[in-house]
Write a structure and sequence with these properties.
- Helix content is 46%, strand content 3%.
- The protein is mainly alpha-helical.
- The longest helix is centred in the last third of the chain and has 44 residues, at 480-523.
Length: 542
Amino acid sequence: MPECAERDPLTQSFVVLSDDSERAFEQVFAYELAPDEADGATGQWLLVAPGKSLPAQYSGRLSPAGKAPPKSRPPPPPSSKGASKGGKAPPPAPPRGKGKPPSLGAPSKAVHSGPPAKPPFGRKLHWKAIPAEKIPSTIFAQLTSVESKVIDIKAMEQWFAQPEKKAPQCPKAPSGPSGDEDKGQSGICILDGKRTQNITIMLRQVTSRIAMPELLRAIQDMEITHQALTSDLVDHLSSQVLPALEQTDLADYNGSLDNLRPLERDLVPLLQVHRLRMRLKLFQVALSVDWQFAALRERITNLRVAAEEVQKSKSLRLLLSTTLRIGNFLNCGVVEEQSAPQAVVGGFTVESLLKLRDFKTGGLRCEFSALHGVIMHLADDPNFIGGLKSELGAVTEASREDMEALAKAISAFQATAETVAVEVEDYGEQYGGGCGPLKALAEKAQSLSTQLSADYEQALEAGSKCLEFFAEDVSQTKNLESNLGRFLQTVDRVVATTAECWQEVMQMKAAERRKAARAKGAAAPLSGMVGGPVSARRRSAA
C-alpha cells in the first residue's frame, strides 16, 4: 500500500493510490488539517478513500502536506480479514489531533465542524449523482477549471431568491358600523385570501351569465321568468355558493358598502336579502313546476289508458275464450260445457295463461305445449298477434311503472305546492315587490297539484275496475297501486309469451308446408316422365 498522496497533473488535486482493489472500500485514510491562518479552524479532519480525488484547496493544509501520517504514529488494529494478497500491512491509523476523526460516510469531501450547510435559496436540486467510485472513468474526471464558468452569485440571487412574504394589505373588517380606519387601498377585506379564491371560482359560473347587481335585483323582485336564471344556475347557487357564503362573516357586516372591496360589495347585499334560501327554493319550484307536472301527468295517463285497454281488447278476449275451451277439453275431455257442467271451469285468472307453456304431454312433438295448441286454433287469422300488440300498446310502458315511486312523486309535488302557499301566507310581506310573482306561483302550483290529484284518482278508479273485471283481489284499498302494477306486468308477459309462441307455430306450419310440397313434387312426375317405366312397357307391348 503506498503511503503518499500524489498530485494529479490534470486536475491539480491529490489522489491517494491503492493497489488493493478488493479492499478499496475499507481502506480510508484520515488526515488532520493544519490550522488555517485565515479562518483559524483547528482540529479538522479530512477523510481520503483509495482512488478518491482531494480538492486542491486542502493540498497545503495536509499534515505534512502531500504525505501520509508519520510512521511513528501507532498503526491501526489488524483487520479481521487478514492481510491483503500482496502481504502488506493495513493502512496506518489516523493521528490523534485536537479533534476527533469524523464518521466514515462521504469520504471524498471535506468535513467541517458545525451543522450542515443549508441551501442558499431554501430548496435543493434533486439530481441523480454518479457514485464516487465511478467518477474516475467518466467525463467528470477529465474536466478542468477552464472548461467551467464562474458562478455569478448576484445574478443567481436575482433569479432564484424568494421574495419576502408581505402581510395582507387589507385587514379583516371590524364588527362596528364603520371601518374607515381599517380601509386599505382596495377596500376592507372580510374574506381571507384562500376563501376569496374559492368563492371567486364558484361565482364564475354565475357571473358568466348574469352580473351580480342584476342577480340581486332578480332575487329581490322574484323575477322567476328571468332568462339567465336557469334551473342548473339556481341549483349551483343553492348547493354550492350559498353554503360557502354562510360560513363567512359577510352577513354580519353593517358598515358602508363603499368601504368594501368589489367582491364583498356584491356579496354582502345578496346575503342580507330576507329569506334568501327560501327565495332560491321558490325559483327552483318556478323553473321545474311545469315539466314536473307534465312528466307526472304522462305517467298517470299511461296507467289509466293501459287499464282501459286491457278491458276493451278484442284480441285478448279471443285468446281467453279459446284458452277456456281448450283447457276444459284437456282437463275433462269435453268440447261443450253443457255436456258436463259439473266438471268444466267457467273462467280463470290471467296469470293462468302463463302456465299453458308448461303443459306438455311428451307426444310426437315434445316441444308442443298447451299454448301452442291455442295458437294453432288462432293461426287462421294472420292479423291476430298484430292486433293483440296494438290493442295493448300502453300496457308495456305501464307495466314498467314503479307504483310506489309514482305515489311518492305525486305526494312530493303536492307538498311543494303547499309549501309555496304557506310561504305566501306567512311571509308574503317580507318579499316586497316580489310578493306579486310569489302569489302567482302559489296559485299556479296549487292548481296543477289539484289537477294532478284528480288525474291520479281517475287512473286508480280505472285500475280498480280493471282488477274487478278480471276477478283480481281489490279488497285492500291501500294495496291497490301494487296490485294494479303486478296485474299489468302479468298482462305484458302474456302478450310477450303469446307472440313468441306464435312465431314458433308459424315456423312449424311453414316447415310442414315445405315438407308436403317436396313430397308432392317427388311423386307427381313419375307417371308422365319421358322414357320412364310406363313408356318403356308401352314400347315393348307395341
